[in-house]
Amino acid sequence: MAFATVRKRYRDKEKTKFMGFQADYIDQNGKRHAKLFKRERDAKDWLTEVVPEVKAGTHAPHRESILVAQAADLWIERVDTVLKRHSSTITQYRNHIRLHIVPAIGAVKLSVLSGPAIEEFQDRLLRDGSRAMAQKVMISLKAILANAKRTGKVAVNHAAGVKLPPPGSGHRRQKPKIGETIPTKDELKAILARVDGTRWQPLLLTAALAGLRSSELRALRWPHVDIEDIERASIHIVERADEKNKFDAPKSEAGTREILIPSLLANTLRRWRAVCPKHKNGELDLVFPTGVGTVESHANIANRGWYAPQCKAGILKKKVGDDGRPVFHQDGKPVMVPKYGFHALRHFAASFWIQQGHLPKRVQELMGHASIVMTLDLYAALFPAGADEREKMEKAAAFLTPIKTA
Questions:
Q1: Residue 180: pLDDT above 70?
Q2: Whole-angstrom Cα distance, residue 369 to residue 277?
Q3: In the CATH scheme, what is the homologous superfamily, with its name and number, of domain 68-167?
């Protein structure tokens, strides 16, 4: 038989019962495959797609093709065992697969997953949820298909060329803004006043003045806090704790950093060290542990240490539903919730450093951002233009003064 052919197919030897046009081909492994079509043109068009894949050695026969859900499992296994991503990252990937990808296209074979089908899936994500979540799920889907292509499970990653449409006014990312997503100084003082004398005060103060992530706060150990010389006091970030309380290095090289801290924070940490709970074996030596010296959970820090004092201080906002509209009680009054998420303390630290006059590159280093693009994307509006900006501009353009205009 020729490498690829199209022939008429009959149900009987007498050729009286016509079935259709059968496309036959031999794949790169020497196996014969066939598919029946009603029209000869469709059979030839199909072979036109298959033959180049066979010649390139990338063809995956339909009957041997795996499902999207199976491809997702293979990708997760590689991310976990080979790429060794952080457990929190893997948990996010699993949620993308479980909540979005599998329910929609998990039962579809890779061999028939087309570009238009992926575009439709993306549109559904945008209709049903946020743009940010749609983008994250699509990144996971593209990685799943890229891994399937790498292992020969599919010839083409049809998701690679699918891009999110330009954001409309309703999808613009909200930049951190003081008083909206960043606590004002007065608000922070009011919140800290509600935790004065408790174990939450040094933790919140460290988050606000040193910009540590929750995972970094939970993993911080006393040997990495240098407060012996107040004038040179600093915190060294070398570890993070995941949701399972396992310790690991920061996600990126930039996450490993030294942060200079003001004397106010250094003295607060000194007093806290004298009464800080110790682990029974003394092996953890954590700065912000539980009452018995073990790793504190993020949920406990956020709920008891951050949200509760906001409620006591009356720093609240109206709760908004998934549709962007305020949520009301049965009596018609709006539901009020804490105004700021825990990450707002990290934003406060960035604004604190910017107010000190730090340049963007230094703010990037202190924040532990992998790229200055991330720093500027978030905080560009907080950097002052300078009171003498016009004067500098006029002096710079002075060399053009002799030029005459018409």
A1: yes
A2: 31
A3: Tyrosine recombinase, N-terminal domain (1.10.150.130)
